[in-house]
Amino acid sequence: MTAETVQKQQLELAALIAQNTNVDGIHATAIARLFLIRASQPTAPLHILHKPALCIVAQGQKQVILADRIYLYGSEQCLVVPINVPIVGQVTEATLAAPYLCLRLDLDPGELGALMLETELDVPKHQPLQQGLSLSPMTPPLLDAAIRLMRLLETPQDIAILAPLIVREILYRLLSAEHSPCLRQIAMGDRRLHAINRAINWLKNNYSKPFEINEIAREVCISPSTLHHHFKAVIGMSPLQYQKQLRLQEARRLMLGDGMNAAIAGHQVGYESPSQFTREYRRLFGAPPSCDIARLKSSSEA
């Protein structure tokens, strides 16, 4: 396939996303787990807990930071997030005339596992753990499948029958390409990743509790040292650092969305010391709570 053909595909995908996103933001679609994202200007860094997903940028550019690693990608690459990870995302290239346009398809590990079994794809034994993000070149077959999935939004009557088939093709393309090592580990229930995922879920549900690595290790049935080692290999940070990010992100949400003051929000997420909360909040978000929330409110009103 020629470079000219690929460029035409990218232009068509961008046009399809633009047609279905009239304003900036994240837009749900009639296709299950398919979301479209539009931004008409570069955005401020946003701290989020990213769910397992495939992200395809049709136009513009984005930067994602996981722990100390920076991933910069545009229409030439696609990003796969195989496990829940706390990232900092920022649209770096977007204008009114050429907005940032992205397709996000949330992934179902069970669906990936069933497809792997059916296609007899396997995971090499003793494969090293993969970090929680995978960035690789966009392939023409994957781009073609994404375009066909987007076209279904123009014929809603076809979605129920054809969308699952195209999603299945997309998953097959991912499992057969450079993303396969991390996805195959997730799909086949790698015991180490299963333990990490259980630890993540435990931390999400108990982030306000005092951190006890022994308690979490007992919950996921591995030793504390093994949990710490595997967790850091995949997520890029320790379980304690992960819990801190969950706490601070939730406190930010409480202050921004519910109007809570910093002292109450910090206590609600598990901080006994207001000064420690302010100190760690500033370290993560670059400003103390009051200044950060004022800046966020100002930018949303602009």
Automatic annotation (TrEMBL):
Signal peptide: none annotated. One of its GO terms (molecular function) is sequence-specific DNA binding. The keyword tRNA-binding does not apply. Pfam families: AraC_N (PF06719), HTH_18 (PF12833). Keywords: Transcription, Transcription regulation. Residues 197-295 form the HTH araC/xylS-type domain. This is AraC family transcriptional regulator. The lineage of its organism: Bacteria, Bacillati, Cyanobacteriota, Cyanophyceae, Nostocales.
